């Protein structure tokens, strides 16, 4: 019977190992470590599980959870195993010793199982070999599938070692400018090396058989290749090369240009894979059957296509915002998903049933997505530091249902325990259907329903809805446009949407009854009845402004009444007070000056200067006349002359209060003997 699926995760508080379906419980015999744990990993065969503590490296048996070995290595930042789990490799940060020499920070240890509490002697824990490895990228050794040889890249060459004797170079592949390499899996030992562009020469990928390094069996030269990803199929017979440049010279992408090449290990085939949609290549991966591979490419929405091992397209999926493709371990299902800056949707297709879509899973903000070893479950997780909220692990069934949910705080790492596909015979994953864990039901009960996509904007006329009559044209049955607001509006609002609103209508508020003053027509807005607007609710500044408006209005009405009295032949502008006397004098002065320039006061530009001189003479003459009148006992001259300023209103509104001219006035008439017609004639002459 196959062992149950198992996964491990590392958080801020420690490391846990969990048995998955159907129990979903922590491993009974495992003691959870706490503290600052920098990394953890399973061996490729699933036999061991190890993590790095600040002072040591601990190795356990994940089947029972017991510690089997402890390595005296501190400050380890990276861990790795050989394919069969015979060796464990540790990497520390580069440092120097007391003499200033670089310390060998990459160490290889042999895993020795010891279930006793006694300390294993130092000889058994001594590492097999050590090297100086400055870069953390590509730090690990690469082993052949049988662990007979291992290799590492140095300047201009790839060095090979026998796994049991790392102190001596067994063989070396000399390639000028080599930057990366990849050993093939499977029984045939092949190596692919990459040489980037240099000195005007194109980039190159070459395949050699180990240990015949004299001539490459396959080679592909190309430009636009600053870095590459070398991906072998499981049998080690075909290689995919994903080449990428750092800068896109066409300016169409921020991330450079990408091209795809396919090479066979025996040299029988090499070709560039032409893609029918413009844009970058997001992902490419081999199927476990080694006979086909999938590519996600093109500007969003991207296109996903399945190719055979001769780069011939066999099937294309619908366009969608996707950037990841993952085959199940048995090769029956494939996930086409969108992660990163995309929504996190997963489409599951059944390849054995003519690429039928099985389900779509909403895994928002997921940064990890892996198939279980039996190909029936999918693990998704949101991890830190990419996203520090909503961290947790969720396990889904291939049919799309959520089986398990666990919310965690600052989840850093999560992975399935590897198992061979031979221990999981192919069967029907949909029968019987597993039951979800209570944590999944609780999560689904609190999860909000996904909102419907808004889609593209459509104007009201293109939404298939009936247009209101107020917005229809008249020839389409809409309301007729009437310019008269009083007859085309109801309560100040136009029937067909035109015109100015005369009253503010608050939805839900009680309608205000329109008050019409006597003689007013309807439709003129709301007017409060007399006495309705009180000053008790007004602020101090508002009351002050109201008094100013009322004073100004009274003044305008008085002026209007004075104009009407003048038009009727009644002199109502004779001043009665000191300030009015001064205004009368100024008006008299202006009338005297206008009398001298009555012919063309507005047409002659030089008349303004003459008017000023005449005004000054008139003022001097009036002062002399007033002095003479006071000497003779009569009133001043300005008090027995009618004012020509018809805009100045009489405060009491009557013409009977006009001053009586003196016998020695300018007109030479006694009191009460000055005819009104003579005064009116003089006013007409001056104006």
Description:
The structure is a single chain. The chain is an alpha+beta fold. Among the domains are: 36-140, Single Sheet (N-terminal domain of TfIIb); 143-226 and 233-272, 7 Propeller (Methylamine Dehydrogenase, Chain H); 555-598 and 608-686, no CATH class. Helix content is 14%, strand content 28%. It is built from 6 helices and 38 strands. It has a 4-stranded antiparallel β-sheet with strand order 3-2-1-36, with no helix packed on it. A hairpin with a 7-residue loop joins strand 17 and strand 18. Helix 4 crosses helix 5 (607-631). The longest helix has 28 residues, at 540-567. The protein is elongated. The model is unreliable at 117-123, 485-500, 591-605, 637-672 and 676-687 (pLDDT under 50).
């Amino acid at each position: 019977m196959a062992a149950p699926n198992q996964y491990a995760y590392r958080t801020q508080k420690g490391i846990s190992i969990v048995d998955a379906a159907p129990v979903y419980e922590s491993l009974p015999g495992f003691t959870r470590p706490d503290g600052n744990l920098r990394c953890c990993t399973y061996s490729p065969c699933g036999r061991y599980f190890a993590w790095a503590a600040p002072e040591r490296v601990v190795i356990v048996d994940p089947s029972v959870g017991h510690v089997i070995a402890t390595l005296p290595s501190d400050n380890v930042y990276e861990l790795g195993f050989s394919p069969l789990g015979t060796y464990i490799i540790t990497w520390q940060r580069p440092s120097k010793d007391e003499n200033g020499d670089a310390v060998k920070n990459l160490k290889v240890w042999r895993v020795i199982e010891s279930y006793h509490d006694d300390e294993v002697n130092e000889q058994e824990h001594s590492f097999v070999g050590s090297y100086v490895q400055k870069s953390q990228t590509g730090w690990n050794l690469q082993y052949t599938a049988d662990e007979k040889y291992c290799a590492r890249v140095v300047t201009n060459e790839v060095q090979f070692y026998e796994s049991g004797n790392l102190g001596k170079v067994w063989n070396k592949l000399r390639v000028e400018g080599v930057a990366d390499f990849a050993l093939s899996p499977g029984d045939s030992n092949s190596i692919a090396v990459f040489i980037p562009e240099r000195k005007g020469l194109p980039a190159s990928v070459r395949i050699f058989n180990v240990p015949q390094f004299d001539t490459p069996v396959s080679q592909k030269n190309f430009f636009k290749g600053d870095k590459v990803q070398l991906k072998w199929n499981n049998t080690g017979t075909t290689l995919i090369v994903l080449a990428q440049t750092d800068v896109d010279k066409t300016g169409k992408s921020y991330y450079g240009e990408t091209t795809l090449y396919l090479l066979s290990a025996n040299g029988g085939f090499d070709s560039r894979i032409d893609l029918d949609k413009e844009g970058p290549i997001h992902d490419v991966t081999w199927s476990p059957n080694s006979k086909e591979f999938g590519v996600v490419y093109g500007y969003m929405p991207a296109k996903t296509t399945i190719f055979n091992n001769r780069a011939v397209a066999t099937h294309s999926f619908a366009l969608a915002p996707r950037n990841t493709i993952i085959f199940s371990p048995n090769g029956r299902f494939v996930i086409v998903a969108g992660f990163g800056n995309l929504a996190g949707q997963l489409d599951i297709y059944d390849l054995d049933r003519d690429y039928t879509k099985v389900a779509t899973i909403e895994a928002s903000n997921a940064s990890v997505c892996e198939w279980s070893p039996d190909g029936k479950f999918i693990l998704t997780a949101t991890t830190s530091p990419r996203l520090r909220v909503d961290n947790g692990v969720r396990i889904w069934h291939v049919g799309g249902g959520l089986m398990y949910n666990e919310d965690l705080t600052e989840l850093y790492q999560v992975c399935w325990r590897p198992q061979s596909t031979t221990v999981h015979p192919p069967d029907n994953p949909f029968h019987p259907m597993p039951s979800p864990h209570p944590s999944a039901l609780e999560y689904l009960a609190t999860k909000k329903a996904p909102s419907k996509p808004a889609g593209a904007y459509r104007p009201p006329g293109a939404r298939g809805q009936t247009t209101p009559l107020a917005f229809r044209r008249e020839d389409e049955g809409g309301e007729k446009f009437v310019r008269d607001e009083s007859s085309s509006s109801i309560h100040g609002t136009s029937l067909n949407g035109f015109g100015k609103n005369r009253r503010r209508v608050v939805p839900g508020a009680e309608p205000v009854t329109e008050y019409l003053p006597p003689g007013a027509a309807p439709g003129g807005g709301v007017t409060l009845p007399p006495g309705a607007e009180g000053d008790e609710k007004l602020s101090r500044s508002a009351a002050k402004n109201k008094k100013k408006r009322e004073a100004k209005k009274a003044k305008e009405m008085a002026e209007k009444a004075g104009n009407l009295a003048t038009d009727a032949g009644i002199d109502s502008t004779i001043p009665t007070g000191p300030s009015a006397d001064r205004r009368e004098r100024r008006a008299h002065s202006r009338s005297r000056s206008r009398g001298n320039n009555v012919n063309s006061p507005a047409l002659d530009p030089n008349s303004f200067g003459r008017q000023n001189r005449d005004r000054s003479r008139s003022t001097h003459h009036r002062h002399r006349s007033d002095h003479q009148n006071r000497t003779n006992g009569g009133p001043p001259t300005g008090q027995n002359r009618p004012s020509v300023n018809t805009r100045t209103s009489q405060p009491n509104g009557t013409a009977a209060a006009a001053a009586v001219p003196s016998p020695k006035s300018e007109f030479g008439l006694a009191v009460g003997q000055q005819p009104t017609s003579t005064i009116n004639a003089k006013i007409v002459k001056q104006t």
